[in-house]
Amino acid sequence: MARSEWSFKSAVELSAALSAKKVSAVELTQDAIARIERHDGRINAICVRDFGRALVAAREADAALARGERKPLLGLPVTIKESFNVAGLPTTWGFVPQKDFKPVEDALAVTRIKQAGGVILGKTNVPVGLGDWQSYNDIYGTTNNPYDLGRTPGGSSGGSSAALAAGYCALATGSDIGGSLRVPAFHCGVFAHKPTINLCAARGETPPPFPAIPREGDLAVIGPMARTAADLSLLLDVMAGPDPLDAGVAYKLDLPAARHQSLRDFRVLVIDSHPLLPTDRDVRGAIEKLATDLAKAGVTVARESPLLPDFVETSRLYMRMLLSFLGAFFLPDELADAQARASQLSREDRSLGAERLRGITASHRAWVLDAGSRAGLRAQWRALFKSFDAVICPIMPTPAFPHDHSPDQSLRRISIDGKDYPYSDQLAWPGVATLPGLPATAAPLGLTKDGLPVGVQIVGPWLEDRTPLKLAELIEREFGGFVPPKRFDD
Question: CA 202, CA 29: separation in Å to the nearest integer?
Answer without folding.
Answer: 27
